[in-house]
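From the shared-data thread, chain only:
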Amino acid sequence: MKLGAVSAAVACGLVVWFCGAAAVLGFLPESLLPLLASVAIVSTSAALLWRRWSVEARAIALATALGLLFSVANGRSMTAPDTQPASEQPWNLLRHATLLLDGTPALAAHPHAHWIYRRPDGSHASWYPPGMALLAAPVYLPTLLATAPSEALLSQFEKLAAALLNAGAILLLGLSLRRAGSSARWIFIGCTLYGLCGSALSIQSQALWQHTGVALALGLVLLASVDAEGRGASALGYAAGLIATIVRPPDLLLLLPFLSLRSIAQGLSGRRLALAVFLGIGSGAALFGVNNWLLFGAPWRVGYLIGQGHLGFTFSELPESLVGLLVSPAHGLLIFVPWLLLLPLVPLPEERTARAALSSGLLLLCLMSCWWCWWGAEAFGPRMLAEAQLPLAFAAARAGPAMSVWSRRTLAALALAGFATHASYLFVLSRDASFHADGAWSARAHPVGHWLSPGRRAD
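Structure, as tokens:
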């Protein structure tokens, strides 16, 4: 079984690189790259492994495949200003062995973008941590064939990389639920709640946002935490700490509930997992420090601090930020991911991991309520709480079997509303020039508010 999984992974990698090379060389329209590569991956995996999988494994595979295919089905690039550096750094890293932006089409097209730091020697660097560029680099290997790729081509590789990383997070969530003992039904429900009925569909899978990488790290630590005594738990924990540190350091706070003092005190496995996570954090901090030293002159000089003049945290937005993060019509979590309304009303099982998952989501809420731009600027929906939806989906799926029939029907209706909200943006509003997702409280940033607004009806 393990040999078959390795063979399937190798085959999928070759498929991605073959499709990528065809797009780079002009044999495949670049706009079709994410969709055709994703279809090929799903087909290859199913052909090689479907008959070998258990019912639970098939539920995971089906949910992951749906998340991957829906995320690329809109057929257009969704690069945002904040993700533009990460969308082109992988090519520069592979082609010129540098994370600098010099030579990238984005720098030529946007020489005064807010994310550019002009170094004393005249070269240009990105404010943002290097994590997403490093995670996406393997997908960009075919771009080595391009000496001067266009923005359009690299944005399609970005979309494919983001969709694959997001699919990886869905896969890890499914594996965590299976290891926790969930049935195939609730594994599928938990994975689709995260992958299709929330920000994973409209944000994490569309561009190389930092939230995508943090969701992957949360999936890793969740899988390790469910069975800390299992083989590979320490490696998963190490990878989680490393990825979270190089992608979005403040979000390291989200890993702490899975490393509670109680779990560490209960046995060797808990202490081993905690040690692995902290070693990963240490390795990530060293890598991050080297990056800062090379780009900004000192390990402690963070790009965001240099460019923005502050680290971004403030108490001046409270309590508006706390309320807005939950119920703002423009970016409120409960407005855009309504199935979460049911979570406080159902009892969680008496298990440490489910409660840690819920605590992780609450910690991100507290952290982002102290962020100067808590609404996430012009991004759609509750971007600043996007990664929290993965552990919350785990908690919802673990609570599912204890739900009443009425609660399950309500969950289905709310999940469908969440899917409709994010799918309407992905397939319709992202093409509508009159739609703008900016503003902390603007009702027009929600699909329903946009369509019902007086100006829209007049148009």
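The mean pLDDT is 87.
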